[in-house]
TrEMBL record:
Domain ABC3 transporter permease C-terminal as annotated: residue spans: 362-481, 759-861
GO molecular function, one term: transmembrane transporter activity
NCBIfam families xrefs: ADOP (TIGR03434)
Protein name per the record: Permease
InterPro entries: ABC3_permease_C, ADOP, MacB_PCD, Macrolide_Exporter_MacB
Keyword Ubl conjugation: no
Compartment annotation: Cell membrane
Keywords: Cell membrane, Membrane, Transmembrane, Transmembrane helix
Length: 879
């Protein structure tokens, strides 16, 4: 019989048996028809069962048939304990799904290579040194003039291209009122060619478009934006749009799949780098440089050349600085250049959420280990309960390999079901997490299409989980000794020891999860409750642009119209909103005092701004309409403590560079300026009267209107305020946000970590409770005869409870001690994610310790009650 027929017959067992029985009957009928006695013919043919089995060996692939039988038997065993199976599959599925979801995030943000030629040979230029506050830092930004010098230095040895930080900008294909917000990505002229990219339509940006003498106002659309905005219309090439008073012509569409070099940000419109007005400024560091070395050129020599260019350029630039602290000017620059692999691109999202994702990976990995330990205990208990079955199989000739396979098949089926459930969870979870940290003003967009890395990780994880929870119980079950098992079992003490070790591991992992969750939730609570120094409620911020620069009187007239809107309490203007991400800083000096090494923040405001924001006036007066920028200022309390040792500075002056002295007319309370995490720095508030160096008034192109409303929900006024502003076609609001939204955005990462950590902490506690309950119940079941005898001879309830729980509680305490050690190591690694909280604090250790002890007590109660209800008469009768 052919091999294929034998394989197919393995799945047609009943049919093969029926055909063999029919064949046996036909032979018997032929013998009777030939005149033989029926009984004699049956004896001559032999046992029908033996004949069927021998015939099956030739017609059925025996190994495949036994595998099929084991699968059927395994499925019946799983269905026999539906609740247990469902609990195991759900816990494993959650762990697998969480791990796979976390890996999807890591893959989309770090591992997925850019769709360019030879991404593995791509490097990004980065720097490591001290920032403006003298703190060690890393950054990856350069100026465009520095890029040109570096490109010339490595010419012939490497290709160097430039991609500016993505920027959100307003452009219009029609009138000024029809503006739309897009993500721009200025790139150098050789960027597309050196990256090996070909246009999907038209042409891409070339070197002639990005000449220092005369850059061309051309643009290339991303494929996704072209399809979404223009429905793939080929007539898009040749269209024009306006940005920053410049008319750009669309010359092509980038290839499908390429959306820039910043994972998490999808560039919609590419421009020549020099079309950004700030590109030619040597002090504007907003460019990322990507390098691809030529064959045979070492990275060390390229790094050395680029570092020399960087130092020479920075020393030349520092000659124009007049008001920097001495420690910065001595030995400037105090940073060194390095090349880091950039196959997956470079983005701020990577640096901001890299460590957070690692912490999240640790949490989900621990939850998965807890789930595996639970299921391993479950499988061990089931294997122990099937000891007699296994002993009978061994007695009948079953080999150890067959027994291992029998138990492992159940594990494989549970693992596959859990993997399927986990895949669905991971498919939903990763975009869900990103949606929690994405905002309308700064959307995070990642490529989620599955690739080989995610698939390989999922398969490897499923295989590892199956081996982790299934192999040891399978080996244990297959090593059964028939003589002892058929007498009632062997070595229950050894079996319990293994389960107790797994419990200690579970408690250790669970403690670490609870401990990390406590750190993250405390960080989020403290950061959210940090005093702001201003009133964030009922405040609406409205960044507003003018089609052409306008005088301050025109802006004041706009503010007056807004004040007339019902529900508006007060209106003021500033350069930008507090905690909006923008800032201006520098160093100041006080006549007669030594220079300090402290950065100072600056903000231009109108006189009503302080009262609109609810910042208290401590001394002196507010700014007035007649005050001039660069002549008068209001400072905060920290400014006074830093530069005047707490004495009154009213009437005193300070200098910003070589300009005229600025007189201090008032002192206000401290307010958080740029981020919630940084300490309060000295702050200077100047009148919002834009002046040039010769003292003449300039006109304003943009400002942020700050509106304090009478409604508890300032968002309800957004539409009416927008209409009021756009009644004058000169002005347009780019985006509106409440001040509370800006504050909330500051804790986005911490909120995500706290929420997910709390969720996984709850899951870990539930799994630990189930594991403890299962081990204690199994222990009582194995020792019920012992407990019955002890009760019969007078053992008290307390002693029985101690016997039931003592060893398990010892494992709980042991696990907590190990958890404290691991938790403290983890807290040191994640120190940058924490805020005003320390891992070795007593309060952070008490909570997980007490919670786990409480869970252990609750899990032990059913087992203790069951032990106390054992009937000694029944146990003694069985003896």
């Amino acid at each position: 019989m052919s091999l294929w027929s034998r394989i197919s017959n393995a799945f047609r067992g009943e049919r093969v048996n029926r055909e063999l029985d029919e064949e046996f009957a036909s032979h018997l009928e032929e013998a009777v028809a030939a005149g033989r006695d029926p009984e004699e013919a049956r004896r001559a043919l032999g046992s029908p069962l033996r004949l069927r089995e021998k015939s099956r060996e030739f017609q059925v692939a025996e190994s495949l048939d036994s595998l099929r039988a084991d699968i059927v038997f395994g499925w019946r065993q799983l269905m026999k304990h539906k609740v247990t199976t469902a609990a195991a599959v759900l816990s494993l599925g959650l762990g697998i799904g969480a791990c796979t979801g976390a890996f999807r995030l890591v893959d989309a943000l770090f591992l997925r290579p850019l769709p360019v030629s030879h991404p593995e040979n791509l490097y990004a230029v980065s720097y490591e040194g001290l920032n403006g506050r003298g703190v060690p830092a890393k950054w990856d930004t350069s100026s465009y003039p520095l890029f040109l010098e570096m490109r010339e230095a490595v010419k012939g040895q490497a290709e160097l291209v430039d991609a500016e930080y993505a920027m959100h900008a307003d452009l219009t294909y029609g009138s000024y009122q029809q503006m739309e917000r897009v993500t721009l990505g200025p790139v150098s002229g050789e960027f597309f060619a050196k990256m090996g990219l070909q246009p999907a339509l038209g042409r891409l940006i070339v070197n002639e478009d990005d000449l220092m003498s005369h850059p061309r106002p051309v643009a290339v659309l991303s494929y996704d934006y072209w399809m979404r905005r223009f429905a793939g219309d080929p007539r898009t090439v040749g269209k024009t749009f306006k940005w920053n008073d410049t008319l750009f012509e669309v010359v092509g569409v980038a290839p499908k799949g390429f959306t820039g070099t910043e994972p998490g940000t999808l560039i919609e419109v590419f421009l020549p780098a020099l079309m950004d007005p700030s590109a030619k400024d040597a002090n504007d560091a907003s460019q990322r440089l990507f390098l691809r070395p030529e064959r045979g050129v070492g990275l060390a020599s390229l790094t050395s050349k680029l570092d020399a260019v960087y130092h020479r350029s920075e020393r030349e630039r520092a000659k124009g600085w007049t008001n920097l602290p001495k420690y910065l000017l001595e030995g400037w620059p105090n940073a060194h250049l390095s090349l880091m692999p950039a196959a997956g691109g470079v983005s701020e999202l990577q640096s901001e959420y890299g460590l957070a994702l690692k912490a999240l990976g640790v949490l989900v990995g621990l939850v998965l280990l807890i789930a595996c330990a639970n299921v391993a205990n479950l499988m061990t208990a089931q294997a122990a309960s099937r000891a007699r079955e296994m002993a009978l199989r061994v007695s009948l000739g079953a080999g150890r390999v067959r027994l291992v396979r029998l138990v492992m098949i159940e594990s494989v089926m549970m693992g596959l079901m859990a993997s399927t459930l986990g895949s669905l969870f991971a498919w939903w979870a990763a975009p869900f997490v990103v949606a929690r940290i994405s905002t309308a003003s700064n959307p995070i967009q990642l490529v989620w299409q599955p690739d080989w890395a995610v698939t390989a990780f999922g398969l490897a994880l499923t295989l590892g989980v199956i081996l982790l929870f299934g192999l040891i119980p399978a080996l244990r079950a297959s090593s059964v000794k028939p003589s002892l098992a058929l007498k009632g079992g062997e070595g229950p003490q050894s079996q319990r020891r293994k389960m107790h070790l797994l419990i200690a591991s579970q408690v250790t992992f669970c403690f670490v999860v609870l401990f990390i969750a406590g750190l993250f939730t405390t960080t989020f609570r403290k950061l959210s409750n940090r005093p702001l120094g201003f009133d964030s409620g009922r405040v609406l911020t409205m960044p507003t642009d003018a089609e052409q620069p306008q005088s301050l009187s025109r802006w004041n007239a706009l503010a007056e119209r807004i004040r007339a809107v019902p529900g508006v309490k007060s209106v003021a203007m500033s350069d930008w909103a507090l905690l909006g991400g923008n800032s201006e800083n520098g160093f100041i000096s006080v006549p007669g005092k030594p220079k300090t090494e402290v950065l100072t923040y600056f903000l231009n405001i109108t006189p009503e701004w302080r009262t609109t924001m609810g910042i208290p006036l401590l001394e002196g007066r507010d700014l007035r309409d007649g005050d001039m920028q660069g002549r008068t200022a209001v400072v905060n309390e920290t400014f006074v403590k830093t530069y005047f040792e707490g004495g009154s500075p009213l009437g005193r002056t300070f200098l910003v560079g070589p300009h005229q002295p600025i007189a201090i007319v008032g002192i206000v309370g401290d307010a958080v300026y740029k981020t919630l995490r940084e300490p309060i720095l000295p702050q200077v508030y100047e009148p919002m009267l834009a002046t040039s160096k010769d003292g003449k008034l300039k006109e304003l192109r943009s400002a942020t209107l700050v509106v304090h409303t009478e409604q508890s929900d300032p968002g309800s006024l957004m539409q009416s305020l927008r209409k009021k502003i756009e009644e004058d076609p000169t002005f347009r609001v780019s985006r509106m946000r409440t001040q509370e939204e800006l504050v909330s955005a500051q804790t986005m990462r911490e909120r995500m970590l706290a929420t997910l950590a709390a969720f996984f902490a709850g899951v870990a506690l539930l799994l630990a409770a189930i594991g403890l309950y299962g081990v204690l119940s199994y222990s009582v079941l194995q020792r019920q005869r012992e407990f019955g005898i002890r009760i019969a001879i007078g053992a008290r309830i307390g002693s029985v409870a101690q016997l039931v729980t003592s060893r398990v509680f010892l494992m709980v305490v042991t696990g907590e001690v190990l958890g404290i050690v691991l938790g403290n190591l983890a807290s040191r690694t994640m120190a940058s994610l924490l805020f005003e909280v320390k891992g070795n604090g007593i309060s952070m250790l008490i909570l997980p310790t007490s919670v786990l002890l409480g869970v252990a007590l609750l899990s032990a109660l059913p087992a203790v009650v069951r032990a106390m209800r054992i009937d000694p008469v029944v146990m003694l009768r069985s003896e």
